[in-house]
Amino acid sequence: MKVTDHIKNAKKTLFSFEILPPLKGKSIESIYEGIDNLLEFDPKFIDVTYHRQEYVYKKHANGLLEKVSVRKRPGTVGICAAIKNKYNIDTVPHLICGGFTRDETENALIDLHFLGIHNVLLLRGDAIKTEKDFVPNPNGHNYALDLVKQVVNMNAGVYMDDDLVDVAHTNFCAGVAGYPEKHFEAPNFESDLKYLKAKVDAGADYIVTQLFFDNSKYFAFVDKCRAAGINVPIIPGLKPLTTKSQVKVLPSIFNIDIPFDLTEAINKCKDDKEAKIVGVEWGAAQAAELIKHNVPCLHFYTMGKGESTHNIAKLVY
Which one in 79, 166, 208, 293 has a CA-CA gap of 20 to 30 Å to 236? Predict the structure, then answer.
């Protein structure tokens, strides 16, 4: 079922979460363990992130260095299929621009269509560590908007190869990212909103937000989206704080503000164990207020660690 259909049919705020594929060579069992711990909250869909290639330098016996492309977390499509098969829960694979050609993206979408997976979250993706700015793959997409257009085309039966006849129409529900505190590369919020509207106008079906810790930022974001003519569901994305260092690290990574009260509470913690408790308390208060405002779904970024998400959900669902 499509994410938008789950939202349409819901009688209360839904619960969903995002997971990371395991590192190459690791078992999928860690994924199952994380999901098992959250099943009691009836997740309607589970997001699985996609990771582009990175480059490492391999030293040979002769002393020369070879630049080698590696993908540290492969398996997004396979994990989505495995989750769907094991739990009968809809999955939302992430598709990104970076590291993929348009043909590779089309092939991934064909695989997903064959597997009966009809939801995708379309993202540009970040620059790799060895590049200062995002660099698209040759013959790849520059922006998430381009991914949206490709998915919409395939839904209409338009493929990369113009010579195909009697083609199957795909049936994807396309999600895109929204930034209540603006994308870090956007010169201002208004420009960021303009690009978001372009994705929705091109056919994106729903928006899931970047993480935030101040609900007023989300409410203001929704109001500005509605005023701009963006009327698709806007799902808030939440991530509970789990360590003391995150009050310093997360703002620089995600271009977000952490409220003064939360910062003070975390700074008073003696260790990460206490910080995790504070993170759950703050996250539960956030979640309860959002539910009170009838948001369509609470979407949790677990980063492969679902304990805090479980503790929050236990308090509000």
Answer: 79
- Strand-pair partners of 5: none
Between CA 71 and CA 59 the distance in angstroms is 18
For residues 157 and 130, the answer to whether their CB atoms sit within 8 Å is no
For 128, which DSSP code? P
Closest to 7 in 3D by CA, of 244, 251, 175, 159: 175
Which string of DSSP letters, residue by residue, matches 136-196? PPTTB-SSHHHHHHHHHHHHTT--S-TT--SPPP---EEEEEE-TT--TT-SSHHHHHHHH
d(CA 157, CA 315): 45
pLDDT single digits (tens) 240-287: 999 999 999 999 889 999 999 999 999 999 999 999 999 999 999 999
Task: Show the domain range for 288.
Answer: 3-316
- Alpha-carbon distances, residue 99 vs 33, 102, 126, 159, 217 (angstroms): 30, 10, 10, 20, 32
CB 235, CB 206: distance < 8 Å: yes
The tally of domains found in the chain comes to 1
Question: What are the distances in angstroms from CA 195 to CA 90, 176, 190, 207, 294?
Answer: 28, 11, 9, 13, 26
Kindly give the parts of the chain with pLDDT less than 50.
Answer: none
Q: Which amino acid is at 19?
A: I
- Asked if 90 contacts 45 with a C-beta cutoff of 8 angstroms, the reply is yes
Residue 228, C-beta contacts closer than 8 angstroms, at least 6 positions apart: 193, 197
Mark whether 18 is an active-site residue: yes
Q: Is the pTM here over 0.85, yes or no?
A: yes
3-state helix, strand, coil in the chain (%, to 5): 40, 20, 40
